[in-house]
Each structure stands twice: as C-alpha cells, then as structure tokens.
Amino acid sequence: MKSFLKYLKSAVVLTVLMLVVCGFAYPAALTGLGQLFFPHQANGSLITADGKNTNDPEEAAGSAISGQDFSGDPRYFQGRISGVNYNTYTEEEKEDGTYAGVGSGGSNLAPSNEELKERAEKSVEEFLKQNPDVKKGDIPADLLTASGSGMDPHITPESARIQIPSIAEETGLSEEQLDKIVENNTEGKVLGVFGHDRVNVLKCNLDIAKAIGEI
Amino acid sequence: MLQIALTLVVFILAVIPMGRYMYHIAVKKKTFADPFFDRVDNRIYKVCRINRKGMNWKDYTLSLLMTNAVMVFVGYLVLRLQYILFLNPNHIEGMEPTLSFNTIISFMTNTNLQHYSGESGLSYLSQMLVIIFMMFTSAASGYAACMAFLRGLAGKSKDLGNFYEDMVRITTRILLPWSLIFGLILIWQGCPETFGGNITVNTITGKLQDFAMGPVAALEIIKHLGTNGGGFLGANSSTPFENPTIITNTIELISMMILPGACVLTFGKMCQDRKKEDKTAKEPLFGKQGRTIFAAMSVIFLIGLTICFVSEKAGNPVLDTAGISQDMGSMEGKEVRFGIDQSALFTTTTTSFTTGTVNNMHDTLTPLGGMVPLLHMMLNCVFGGKGVGLMNMLMYAILTVFICGLMVGRTPEYLGKKIEGKEMKLVALVLIIHPLLILGFSALALAVPAGLEGITNPGFHGLSQVLYEYSSSAANNGSGFEGLSDNTYFWNITAGLVMFFGRYIAIVAQLAIAGSLFAKKRTKASIGTMRTDNVVFTILLVFIVYIFAALTFFPALALGPVAEHLTLWY
Fold it and tell me: ipTM value of the model?
C-alpha cells in the first residue's frame, strides 16, 4: 500500500507538470508567436472578393487555401466533388437542417461500390451536357471524383482548361481572357520537383466575377 | 517518382544527426544544447521533487502504468465536462461515456483512432488538455519504454534508467523544441493557430461558408512528431487547414519518420558502445546491429510503397468505363496538391511508422493500394510507432535467431545473451497477441448484428473495413477506413479494448524480456554463434516477418482486398 501511494504521488506530479507545460503553455506560446509573425495565416488565410488578404471575417469572401462550392452556376469554374459541400450553404439550408454544421471528409465509397459507379455515370452525363465539346473518356481523373477532405481548393490545369469553352459561352468572356485567368492562378511545383501543378478554383472565380462585373 | 525518392533522401539525411542526438540523450552523453536544457530540467526535478534513482524493470513498468492511469483519469474528466469548462467558443457538448472511453484510451495508447469528428466533438480546451497533452505524453511513454528495453538488451548501464527522468528529457529536449520550430513553419504555410471561434463568411454567390478554426498548428506538428496521428479536423491531414501545401506535407512526413528511425540508430550505437572500451574511437553512424535492423525495415517499407504506388497509379477500371480518364491514377479521396505519388508515400509511411494521420481517404484506396497500409499495421514493425516499433522488430529478431538456432541445433543467442524458454514464451506472447486481437475481434464483429451495422461498403470491401479498424487499433495506429460507422457502443468499446491490450500487454511483456536478459551474463561470441550484423541476417529477418504475417493473415487478406481486386479487374 505504501509503495502504491509512492507511485501514485509521482504519477500525479508528472501528470500535472505535463498538463501545464504541454497542454497549456506550449499551445499558448505557439499561438502567441503565430499571431505575432503570421497573423493572416494564423486566422485562416481569408481573402476579400477583390482577392486581397484580410483578417476580418465580415469582409472576407472565402479562404485562399480552402475550396468553395460553385455548383449550379455555370459561369464559374467547378471544383471537385465534396463530401461536405465545402461547408457552403444558404440560410434556408441551415434552417431546414440540410446543412448539419461544419465538417470535413470524402465520399468513403470503395472502388468496388455500386454507388460510386452510379455517381460517376451521373456526373459524367451532367458534365458532358454542360460541356458538349468534351469527349467521354477525356475528363481528367480529379474533376469528377470526390476529394479526401471535401475542401480541396484545387483542380488540375487540364480540368480547368476543359471547362473554358463552356464558361466563355456563359459569361461572354473570351477564351484568351479565361486562359489568362487560369494561368494567373496556377501554382507550380516547389523547387520544380515537389508537388503538382494546380489551379485555385476560388481565386479564378473571383477574377471571373470581377471581369463580368458581379462584384 | 523523383519527389518520393528525394523525400526519402531527406529522411536519411535528417535521421542521422537525430539518431546521434537521441542516443546522447538516452545514455546521457554531452549534446550541444546541454547548457540550456540541463538548467531547465534541473529546475523541473527540483520543483517536482523527482527521485532520479535507477529502476529495475518492475519499478519502471509500474511507474509507466501508474502515470498513464492517472493521465487517463484526468483526460476522461475533461472530455465529459468540456461543456461547462472554459475555452469552448463553439459551444461543444460534453462527450458521451463510451465515446469518451474510446477516445481517452485511443490517445493514451498513442493510437489516435477517432470515432468523433474534431470540428463538432471537442472544445479547444479538450483539444489542448486532452489531445495535445496526450500526444506528448503517450509518445514520451513509448520512447521511455523503448529506452529502458534497449538499456536492458544492449546497454552497459547498471539499471534500466529512471522513468520520470526519461519522460522529462524526451519532452524538453526533443518534442517541445521541434514542435515550436516546425509548428511555426506550419503556421507560415497556412495552418490556423488561434483561440478564436469558427468563422462564417459571405461568398460571392450569395451563400455562406463556415471554417473550423482553433489551435490547429500546435496539434498538427506534435501529432506527427509523436507518431500520434489524430487530426484536429475530421478529415485529418487531407484538409487544407491541417496540411495546406507540399511543404507542410513534407514536414509532416519527415516529422513522423524521424524519431522511429532515430530509435533504431540509438539501438545500434548502444550495442556498439558496449563493445569498445576505447573512448576516443569515432561514434558509428548506424552501428552494426542497428544497420541490419534498419535495412530490414527499409526493405519491407519500399516493397509496400511500390505496391501502393503502382496500384493507385493504375486507377479504378470502373471509373474508366464510366468515362473518367484514369491516366492520372485513382483520384477518388485524394487531394490535387498531393496527387498519387505523395498520397501513396504518406499512406505507406503513416501505417509503417504507425502514426495514423492521413492525407487521403484510405477507404477509397484501390484494393491493393489499401492492402499495403492494412498489411503494415498487421506487421507493426516496419519502423513502427515511437519506440514500440523497434521493440516489435527486435521480437522478430529474437524469433529469427531462435528459429535459426533450432535449425543448426545450438542455443540461440542475441547480442551475446542466451535466449531461453522464458524469453521465448514472452516473445511468443507479444507476437501472438497482435493477430489474436485483430482476427478475434474481427470475427466477433462479423458474428453480431451490432458489428455488421457499422459496415458501409458492400461485398469484400466490408470485411476490409472491419479488419482495418481492428488492425489499426491493435497496432496503435489510428487511421481508419473512415466509411465505417464506428461511433456506436459496440465499436467504441471493442476498439477501445483492442487498443488497450495491444499497447500494454506488449509493453509489459517486452520490459519483462529486457529485465530477464539484463540479468544474464554476456557470453563471448564463438565461431558457432549466428551473426546478427550482416546481410544474411537482414534477409532472414525480412523473410521471417513476411512468413509470420502470411501464416496468420493471408486468409483474411485473401477474402478482403485480394478478392476485391480480382472482382474489380477480372
């Protein structure tokens, strides 16, 4: 019994020490440093509709590093399929419970799952209707598959280019203008090796909105 | 391909100095940072009145178990009471009892299996005082156990060391400094770090968008460094807030690889240490004994990585038929910024080093691509979690010398210590408990309705979901086939038990082996001694690991991923 208490006492002391140092002081210190040196990133990398950085959620139109839902508006580039609809919703959807609150995640459909096949067939059909020039089988793999996080901000340059003719028709912008917009919002590989070329969908769409006078 | 190779080169370059640093900490040799940390640590020992006497294996084990028990108790209280405590700007409710049980076991055992979703399940206070706190302490516990084990097996010290001192030294000298430096880099790249609540913005299409915020970066870095793996957000490191760029992805990869890798180097150096009396001789890079173990782990890792990469690159024939080009590979559940190569690398790494963090959704991996993470958790020794992976691999090493010893009719010995009945019984226990937990509980889940209800994908993949959940729990990995509806009484309780037994039975048995070997006299190597520091031993070790896995897991794997692969392609 005496040795039990001895172990218990040491255990409690170590627990309290670790709680204070690791559970409290460390995150507080890192938050202080982060807010001091990188306040923009530490608060979610928010951007306004003109694409400027902001730390005020009231002014913001989205986050530079997070995707956003543009489905149903053919004037804009479409991002990848999201398991959580990019946490984008309308007032009504929130009230009637369609939007269940902030989350993240993919479809979790196995490659052999029938539902995946049905979803793919349906979205290919819809995509071909909106983009009649595209041949079945040419749709890049990323565009009509669900991302892992449901918040993927990017599509591949091929997936952006393939949408340009249809967007040009819907918006009245020229294909050259749209090419330029895609190019301006394409991020390359780090050191020419690491990562992949990718197009930021939200930033492209903010540029389109500006060009057609939406904002 | 090139970026995978370069990342692995960076790992090798980083692990060499880290192995050296870690070894110096384990055996209390001088390091460059001593003047600062000695002062910090001495202050801590003084304030907390920590007795730094050397311990025997029973003392060490009891201290570890008691400390973990107290931490579990405190953490459980915080989870249940989070709704009335402070730092809860998003008004999260208290956690349900079985989910709290599962969560607290999960984080104390370094598993980080998550049946909750961070955005909606935890207050910021819980994220800090339970999750971040346990990420440090469970990692430090694993490392401490490993160091005690190595001192018993290889070292020349008079005891197994002091548990409390080990915990303090690893935390202040490795975990905290690395977390602060690289945590700041993660913030620079875009990980949020704030105590402010979630954000809602007005989009240009007249809708609203929510963003989950919080002290993400602080959790993110220790999550990888401590091979913990539990995400701040539900979708873990696939989300842009946890893993915004390729730079953060690489930092997270290296962070989770470096300490398990360094443990092997520490082991090699300790073995070398004992032999040479000449203090001035140069310290070896790997040490001969460490080199064979490191090589065996690397071979298994590279085989797995290749299978995973090739399988993902081949894509999904069903989507190809539907009209989606599979030239890029299977992109379902993956992020564009990581693509196939970085996803395959991350998946293989997170399960080999038993971290459990994911940058793509494992449930949507192609059948063989998903079999690799499953298999590596079943092996549980391909580098493995912090400290414990090395201990598991040494179990296989002892098994190898035992089997080979039987073949030539000699008493087997490892590192000059005779391996006898007592040690072999304990080794067998450690090696058998793992498959027993996985297969036994999988069978149970498939036999009762409460288990079957969790399965969300039909056919062979359903079995893979169940196997994955228990493999992840038993290996203390924590990644999941996330489709499984696992927040139910049945799954919370069974997975909690598997994590608990998977961790503590192994650790106690391994420390007992260390204690038993420690007490034995070292025999001089003779001409008949099987050498454990050459290529032949590496090859034998790899074969033993694969043969053991094939004998135990092949039927289950054949009915799960292999069968799914065959139906998909033929």
Answer: 0.95
